[in-house]
């Protein structure tokens, strides 16, 4: 065997193999590699978007939590104001009721005092007439008796 002929055969076989690989194998491998590269790139982009979405979600959650705390503080403040208002209204109502009761009691006391004075005037007038009768030892007629009682009651 001739080494040159073997070398030429191997060279031709090598070129046919390279041509076959370049024509049929490499495009398939490059397509698979490009598809894989695209999947990896899409996965990285999705991961970046997910990180951004997660960060945005954290910001929104923090913002919502802050708003909820503000609303809770506002509601508590309003409740405290309302409680104070209710207490003040109750105090005002109680004071008004107490004033009304005091006024009614004063009026009742004044009426009782007037009744007592009238009874006392009547009793004093009767006692005065009885004393005068005993002093005079005679009875005074009813008309002059009433006139005398009226005068005496008006002086008291």
UniProtKB/TrEMBL annotation:
| InterPro entries on file | ATP_synth_B-like_membr_sf, ATP_synth_b/b'su_bac/chlpt, ATP_synth_F0_bsu_bac, ATP_synthase_B_chain
The protein's name = ATP synthase subunit b
Q: Which domain of life is it from?
A: Bacteria
CDD domains, per the entry: ATP-synt_Fo_b
Q: Which PANTHER family match?
A: ATP SYNTHASE SUBUNIT B, ATP SYNTHASE SUBUNIT B', CHLOROPLASTIC
Recorded GO MF terms: proton-transporting ATP synthase activity, rotational mechanism; proton-transporting ATPase activity, rotational mechanism
Q: Where are the transmembrane segments?
A: 12-32
Its placement in the membrane is given as: Single-pass membrane protein
Q: What keywords would UniProt list here?
A: ATP synthesis, Cell inner membrane, Cell membrane, CF(0), Coiled coil, Hydrogen ion transport, Ion transport, Membrane, Transmembrane, Transmembrane helix, Transport
- Coiled-coil segments, which residues? 51-126
Q: Which GO terms describe its cellular component?
A: endomembrane system; plasma membrane; proton-transporting ATP synthase complex
The gene name on file is atpF
- Where does it live in the cell? Cell membrane; Endomembrane system
**Tell me, what does this protein do in biology?**
Component of the F(0) channel, it forms part of the peripheral stalk, linking F(1) to F(0). The b'-subunit is a diverged and duplicated form of b found in plants and photosynthetic bacteria. F(1)F(0) ATP synthase produces ATP from ADP in the presence of a proton or sodium gradient. F-type ATPases consist of two structural domains, F(1) containing the extramembraneous catalytic core and F(0) containing the membrane proton channel, linked together by a central stalk and a peripheral stalk. During catalysis, ATP synthesis in the catalytic domain of F(1) is coupled via a rotary mechanism of the central stalk subunits to proton translocation.
What phylogenetic lineage does the species belong to?
Bacteria, Pseudomonadati, Pseudomonadota, Gammaproteobacteria, Cellvibrionales
Regarding protein family, the annotation reads: Belongs to the ATPase B chain family.
The subunit structure is:
F-type ATPases have 2 components, F(1) - the catalytic core - and F(0) - the membrane proton channel. F(1) has five subunits: alpha(3), beta(3), gamma(1), delta(1), epsilon(1). F(0) has four main subunits: a(1), b(2) and c(10-14). The alpha and beta chains form an alternating ring which encloses part of the gamma chain. F(1) is attached to F(0) by a central stalk formed by the gamma and epsilon chains, while a peripheral stalk is formed by the delta and b chains.
């Amino acid at each position: 065997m001739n080494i040159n002929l073997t070398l030429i055969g191997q060279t031709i076989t090598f070129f046919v193999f390279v041509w076959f690989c370049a024509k049929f194998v490499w495009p398939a491998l490059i397509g698979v590699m490009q598809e894989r590269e695209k999947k990896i790139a899409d996965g990285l982009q999705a991961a970046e978007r997910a990180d951004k979405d997660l960060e945005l979600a954290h910001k929104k959650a923090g913002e919502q939590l802050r708003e909820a705390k503000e609303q809770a503080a506002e509601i508590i403040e309003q409740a405290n104001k309302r409680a104070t208002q209710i207490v003040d209204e109750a105090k005002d109502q109680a004071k008004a009721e107490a004033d009304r009761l005091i006024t009614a009691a004063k009026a009742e006391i004044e009426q009782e005092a007037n009744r007592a004075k009238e009874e006392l005037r009547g009793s004093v007038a009767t006692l005065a007439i009885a004393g005068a009768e005993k002093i005079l030892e005679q009875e005074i007629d009813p008309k002059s008796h009433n006139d005398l009682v009226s005068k005496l009651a008006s002086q008291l």
